[in-house]
Fold this protein.
Amino acid sequence: MEINILTVFYLIGSVTFILGLKMLSNPDSARKGNLIAASGMTIAILGTIFLYKDEEGKSLHNYAWIFAGIVIGAVVGTLAAKKVKMTAMPEMVSLFNGMGGACAALISIVEFNHLVRGYETGNPAMLYDLDKTTVVIIMSGLIIGSVSFAGSIVAWGKLNGKFKDYAFKGQHIFNLLLLGLVLLSATWLVVAPPENIFHLLFYGVFSLALTYGVLFVLPIGGADMPVVISLLNSFTGVAAACGGFLYDNKLMLTGGILVGAAGTLLTILMCKAMNRSLKNVLIGSFGATPTHATAQKAAGNYKEISVSDCAVAMSYARKVMIVPGYGLAVAQAQHVCHELEKMLEEKGVEVKYAIHPVAGRMPGHMNVLLAEADVSYDKLLEMEHANDEFKSTDVVLVLGANDVVNPAAKTDPDSPIYGMPILEVEEAKMVVVNKRSMKPGYAGIENELFFRQKTSMLFGDAKSVLQQLVNEVKSL
Amino acid sequence: MENFLSWIYGHQEYIYIVILMVFLGIEVIGRVPSVLHTPLMSGANAIHGVVIIGAIIVMGKAESDNYLALILGFLAVILGTLNVVGGFVVTDRMLEMFRKKEKPQTPKGA
């Protein structure tokens, strides 16, 4: 009876996951979708704790441990999620993703020990007779979970500046060999487990998979981090699905595969937005090799503009386009930005935002930030629309964006971002670029735009510069 | 060959679920506007936290003398809960901002 009720709970859970994801696709229902998925998850978790029966019909025990773990996780998770700044959201998602991966890997470790314990006590008599399907699933969960965990932690560290890009010569080949070694050892363990060293082999695979996760993400440049997080997200989904096979649990299976498939598609969509293939992102080692050619070519004179000149230019323009980037997020300048937008609109200036799909550290990052500052939806233009409108724009204000407006993507085949669609800000009559310094952007590439005739530089922290602009516009 | 076919026969239920879920996942995500990409990624991140169920089973089955299972299971429960709770809360926080934005729009239009 209880197990049948649990089955119904899992069924409800699966449906809420699908519904939740579907409702997340519409701004009006998104929040409700998230809550629906969360309630489905709660039902499933509580159901598992109280109603689960193993093959022998025994209920779960160790309730104190389970509840202690859940309480600790829930308190820490809620606090972390509530306290994190909007700018640090991508790191946070990456970190939570890593926790899920680690959870899957730990489950595999326990289940492997459980499995070989049977062998050590004589059932089955031969190591060779362990159920192959189960071993394959345990190994998959272990490898995918570990790679996802290690990779997510590195991605988290890179996004908050704890780790730098790091690559050595021939790293791709080394990585491929390492991955080959991981898969080979795992296959060995499945096909013909060596009697004496199978424990060693198992933990060897575990540590090699962790190492691979680190080396896999380390050389990938910052501009590609969103793609990597999305990819690791789908990895964890597949790792969770492995648990579904292991426990014959349809909810874990459906949830995991759903996220695995959706995450993979999202990853591909992001790559498309940058006009690159996934292979190119992963093997291409964006920004790891310094591009001397571009750097030298770009070196030249740039001109600066004063805050008051910029304020005048914008106040008397007909149309102003704002191109936000990570600099805006770092400076927490979204509210001031909205204030400037309102000031200009009062003066009869048409203000719009041009949003590049990969601006910031995650797709949609800018939209979330600007939404926080109450910027209305219809002011946010996607790349194609924005590019149509630049021709009729008087002033473009680039706020801490760099690579997404770099003309090298169109003109310089040697550039690592060559081929990426960009916001063609040069079509406008005047471009003002706000940056903290002349340092190249996150991808580590010089930007020719800054040295062009039409471009003026406005140095300083985005927030303070915008505040000054607001004051100037007000006093005009 | 015989083995392989009987393996497929024995696991057909799973194979069906996997294939259908792959298509469903692609179908559901395919219509998401790019503005919602970040919350969507975060929401999906919370959903794969369903791995917590595996952790609960591991923990709940562990014999009281099996310290490895107890410790690792306990850790897995904590990490899984972090993934679930943190994931849903972060997503909700992001989406809250999208909703807040709609309110000032109405007086503006009125």
About this structure: The mean pLDDT of chain A is 87.
